[in-house]
Design a protein that fits this description.
11 strands; Rossmann fold
């Protein structure tokens, strides 16, 4: 385990790992709960990509993260997913004719008769149910998971194009935009997606990375989802043992303002013991902050899964359940600014402590 005082230092360590000289394909995977700083980490690693480089059609870093997701916005009144037509990714999709690849990948993930329809002039995607008879329905509302799958499918089509391009002689490439590509960074592509579809995404991503014949490219994959992490790690660990790639996996924890980066195998679940200690230490030192709610949520989820409960909320004592869940959801999923106070009020601290103590006693955690 290595400790760092700032997420920027974690990024430097990851960058050094990625840039370590090797003749093999270099792949790093990182597991971290939400609010640990993994998205900020990938943003730092991709910040060296300047707008001038994109304008000059020379991409060094291809990144799937929140900035890509922000290109798309769901209109809940008209049931349309809008997108920014000025984005270089959208322009590349039009130039390379990738619409069919996006639709095929989306249908592979969703495994339903939902089909997206693109209007690249207006910057809109509508969704239809295609049944081949009079039961077909146009312009339907989709779930958040299906929206995430569509956005991932857009990136995945570009990713396949990049890897195909770099596996082809330069003179025969259909685009020169990826000629200088060095890093592919993927930050949590499975938000709101169910487990079956997550496995599909992971397997297709693995196959695409394996198909890359250009070992100059380095891959960095982060996630908060244990299943996605385990599918990635189990596969690439095997490839590393077979000497087909250079692969390492890590977990990232934040204890107050200290970041702890640990090299891991294929099971991040022992992680919950460290999380429990971090929470107990914060309670004892009266230093609870908003991100501790997210840490506690992960323990609740793992306990519920282990005991076969329908939902993690079943692990919260009834007396405080609704009030605590409301706060937990706010602090776990709220888009908190870096400048916003991380401190909790006295009442929120007391509620957290009482709920955590009840949980520890009732479920006999030691």
């Amino acid at each position: 385990m290595t400790e760092f005082n700032a997420i920027e230092d974690v990024a430097k360590s990851i960058k050094r790992q990625l840039d370590t000289s090797t003749s093999k394909k270099k792949i790093l995977a990182l597991y971290a709960f939400n609010s640990m700083g993994k998205t900020r980490l990938t943003n730092i690693l991709s910040e060296s990509e300047s707008e001038d480089e994109v304008d000059n059609r020379q991409i060094e870093i291809l990144c799937y993260n929140a900035f890509l997701e922000d290109i798309f916005k769901w209109d809940n009144e008209s049931y349309i997913l809008t997108f920014d037509t000025s984005s270089w990714i959208i322009q590349l999709i039009v130039e390379q004719g990738l619409e069919g690849a996006i639709i095929d990948n989306f249908k592979d993930i969703i495994n339903l008769k939902i089909e997206p329809s693109f209007d690249f002039t207006k910057g809109e995607v509508t969704f239809n149910i295609v049944s081949g008879d009079d039961r077909s329905t146009t312009n339907i509302k989709i779930s958040k998971g299906e929206e995430s799958a569509l956005i991932w499918s857009v990136f995945y089509a570009v990713l396949e194009t990049a890897i195909d391009s770099l596996s082809t002689d330069e003179a025969e490439r259909t685009t020169a935009i990826f000629n200088n590509l060095k890093y592919i960074i993927i930050d949590d592509p499975v938000s709101s997606i169910d487990d079956t579809r997550i496995i599909t995404i992971a397997i297709k991503l693995i196959e695409t990375i394996q198909s890359c014949q250009n070992n100059v490219i380095k891959f960095f994959i982060t996630t908060h989802h244990a299943l996605f992490y385990n599918v990635i790690v189990n596969n690439f660990n095997k490839n590393a043992r077979d000497r087909k790639c250079s692969f390492k996996s890590y977990s990232l924890l934040k204890d107050n303002y200290i970041f702890r980066l640990s090299e891991k195998g294929d099971a991040p679940f022992s992680y919950h013991l460290s999380v429990k200690e971090i929470i107990q230490k914060a309670i004892e030192s009266d230093s609870l902050e908003k991100y501790h709610f997210n840490l506690f949520r992960n323990i609740l989820e793992k306990t519920a899964n282990f005991l076969g409960y329908n939902h993690w909320t079943d692990c919260v004592a009834k007396d405080n359940r609704q009030k605590f869940i409301k706060l937990l959801n706010l602090y776990s999923h709220g888009k908190l600014s870096d400048l916003e106070s991380r401190e909790l009020s006295g009442d929120d601290k007391n509620l957290f402590k009482e709920t955590f103590d009840n949980f520890m006693t009732h479920f006999k955690w030691s």
